[in-house]
Amino acid sequence: MRSHETKLKRRDLLKLSAAGLVSGVSVPWFESLAGKAVGQPRKKSCILLWMDGGPSQQHTFDPKPKGEFSPKPTSVPGIHIVEHLPQLAQSMEDLVLVRSMTTEINGHYDAKYFLHTGYKRTTAFEHPSVGCIASSQVSHAGDEMPAFVTIDAGFDRNDGGRLYRNVPGYLGPSHAPLLVNDPNEGLENLASTGSNVEARLKLLARSEDRFAKQFATPVVGAKQAAFNRAVRLMRSRRSKAFDVDEEPESLRQAYGKHKFGRSCLLARRLIEAGVSFVEVVHRGWDDHAGAAKPIAYRAPWMDAGMATLIADLKVRGMLDDTLVIWMGEFGRTPGDGNGHFSKAWSTMWAGGGLKTGQVIGKTSEGKNAGSEIAERPVTSPDFIATLCLALGMDTHKEFMAPGNRPMPMVDKVAKPITEMLG
Amino acid sequence: MTAIRSTGYVVLVAFGLSTGSSATVAGAEESLLERDVLPILTKNCLGCHGGLKQEGGLDLRTMPSMLKGGESGPAIEKGHADRSELWKQIASDNMPSGDDREKLSAIDKGKIKAWIDAGMPTVSERQKDVDTLLSGPKRHEPKQVAEAVDQHIGGFLEAAGLKSVGLSDDAAFLRRVSLDLSGRVPTAEEAAKYLDDKDPDRRAKLIDSLLARPDFGRQFGRTWRDWICPPELPSGGNAGSQPYGQARALGDWIGKKLTEGGSWAEIAREILTVKGEIKKNPQVIFYALVGKNGKTTADGTSRAVASLFMGVQLQCARCHDDPYRDWSQREHWGLAAFFGRSQGDFNKIEVGKGASKKPGEISIPGSAFKNSGQTVKAAFLRGAEYEVKGTDDLRPPFADWLTARNNPFFARSLVNRVWFYLFARGIVNPIDDFRDLNPPSHPGLIKMLAGEFVASDFDVKHLFRCLCNSQAYQRTSRFAPGADQQARSALTTAFGRMPMRLMAADVLFDSLKRAYGDEKLDLRTGVTDSTVGMAAPVGDAWLEFQRRFGINENDATDFTHGVAQMLTMINHPRLQQRSKALDAFQKTAPDAGVDRTVEWLYLSTLSRRPGPEEASEAREFVEGAKDVNKAYDGVLWMLVNRSEFLLIR
Lengths: 422, 649
Known about the structure:
The structure holds two protein chains of two kinds. Chain A is an alpha/beta fold. Chain A folds into two domains: 10-21 and 41-186 and 243-420, 3-Layer(aba) Sandwich (Alkaline Phosphatase, subunit A), CATH 3.40.720; 191-238, no CATH class. Chain A has helices at 10-18, 31-39, 86-90, 108-117, 130-137, 197-214, 218-235, 249-255, 259-272, 292-315, 380-390, and strands at 45-52, 71-73, 80-82, 95-101, 148-155, 178-180, 277-283, 322-327, 331-332, 340-341, 345-351, 358-360, 362-363, 373-375, 398-401, 405-408. Chain A starts with 9 loop residues before the first helix and ends in a 14-residue tail after the last strand. Chain B folds into three domains: 2-126, Cytochrome Bc1 Complex, Chain D, domain 2 (Orthogonal Bundle); 218-402, no CATH class; 500-649, no CATH class. In chain B, the strands form four sheets. A three-stranded antiparallel beta sheet of chain B has the order 3-5-4. A two-stranded antiparallel sheet of chain B has the order 1-2.
């Protein structure tokens, strides 16, 4: 089943007009970008929603009849998710559920590394994360906006092991992400607090020009380029994208007051302004004392943030170009969700021109339901390959790792999930 | 004629032809026949132009047969890829022929072209026996060694047809040597004093005075700390749980030892044979830093000791023989076996337990791809097996072997690291990858310096004194006008010009502290509730700065800072506020006018006085401002945001 067209359902319209979004908002908030969108096709972008610690699949997108959370029908006949996510259930025609992730690693950090890079961690060198790869392959080169931004959406509890840090490795430091530590605060040091910044920049520019002539070397060029990128971003009207307070109150309400919803809203603004890859990290999903209670508590803001994000992207005509993925580093043991479980777990995908409204793979039913993959296993390299292909990258491309060792973008063993690619 | 010792292509024989007249340059950009070119030819060409078939009469197995060529004439014209048939065929993807054959990648093509253009250099000619200019068991005067360094480098430059640039001016030298030997910019007063010194021997005296300060030990210690424990260590086994406080203490400990006159051999021995509690022995943390998940591991130690103290890379040989570097898996585990009977964590090292069931034996674990379960006996790298003689802790005999005067690895490894630290590239690169097929760019030079280092009883200060007194170290980083890009890069890699480097995080932080007269300088932002934020714990001003302003540990000429770092420099409120050092200066010189104050600001940041244009621009800026003191803050802000401030020229 495909729902490629961005035609709005009546339901979406109602929801969004209640949020004050529809009136006049088929135009993106930043008008010159709208001009750009008409002039040239947008490249694909991605919003990765990372639930750090490992969210339970049975308490979200792969509920079982005898499980703790009841399966509830969605807007696509035959597909059920938990009853705690009613708004997402109504967006099912825009979603793909991959219920057959099987990724070998049950330790937090190594699993985070594996699911961000498609490679297992070795002692030899660091592999670049998929966000850095996207920055190097599908970003708008020379743009005022950064290619890759990560947003810290806060935490419920302080566990789930050490956080993964996106590393560009052999792609080079220019593909490292820009960090937003708090979606409500925006980007640190973006605005000048001192007086007279333009006069100071002018004074600096004169000596920098002379220095570049005297010492014409790559390192000076690179410093001046990085400095100029920072100044361009400061001066850019598009850098207002970092400020979620510019959005109407009603829409902020729809996304939710929680930092996660704020992060989803910020992610949309950034993608709209030209950022290629945004990773939102929410921490504390390592539910060793049972997943039911904490997920029941988190579900409302997660549901509101994600469902509004998908609807909002759709209204703006951005959903087909923007891939949204919800995931963690692994799932949790079937039943109560106490333990780490990499053998059979779920990720949720939306938009990005995928063939949505379907489920990929299946976990076992009956006794010990969910303890095995029943159909179509998806490994970490398969997952990364699918993500890269959905963003339009050439997954066979080779990079040069330290020691003159050619490394393909995606491990050669990967078999992408072609049945969900548009 | 030299047979090449290697696993992949022993049938191939390279002839050590003399170097061609065109520029042969050492370095990463350089292509060498056996290391870079033969593997490409073997994979792509020899099927049809090798031992089995010689299509078109062409045989690409040896240098003479390449030069002879086939039916259509010579395949290669030395020094001119664009006139060589081989290159034309490869560049146009005409070869390898056939639609189903994979063509050469851009990188492989680049290597072949660079190799032909450079006159077809070979590893074997690099490995020719070389005379070192100084030798013998006694240490030499630093000036003598410095001269010998320059002769080695001069000989290489001459052979390559390159002309070195001149010496740097006094201001550039002062700033460079101060940053390298004391880890921060000199104060305005120190800078003025040196710049006004007319003593012809002032450079040597400056080097002596810098080496005599505890700052030298401190800077050397923290350089080692970063080598052992890079501020960002995402791939390390301890990812995230890095005990930075303890790592800092280890760096301080190394610095203190050095300041007290300890030799490198003593320091290495005290690190490697440490036991007991960290409270009394800060070096305890070394083992946990190179281990996994906060615990020591025999194999992690083996790799770290190989890289840090021996200059070889064993990481691939953990799981399988490394055909590329020619290290066997048995060699990796044979070294690990020395560390199998000691175990520890962030707090202590205990002897008598660990991965080895019996002293001197270790079993390859299940996590290795190959040979897991096999038992390997302790053996010195490229040496004999060690016979266990009634002792449980094999680390002392290992340290004896490592720090012996005739150990082939120890001295050259430190020399190469120090050279790398001062010149931004090693004589061998990567700095921990000494092996036959990765020869030094200046074999005689490294041999001589390693010999001198042994002769001086591993005296680190002596080594620094020798190198800093050389002309090579004192050259300018400016190019002569007119040189093209290729010649510039050749000159830099041949040490005929000093490259510009990015300041390490510690050095930049300390230099900013000095410029702002504020030892408690804190460039963190207001977001404080994210104590385990995505980047890391934002606990401490120093740590946060280290993480954000880290440099490429493999290449200091790489500008690694991005938009986030530049925004900090441009907009962080602290960098737009008052310098306490400037306040102090204004108190001591209350009637200093604009010119003198501006000069003082230049001296305290760039270690030089402003040029005429700079002085008049600054004067105009200050005089045009409503608030003179705010304008001085603006001039200071401008100075620390200059490329010249962030870089070591």
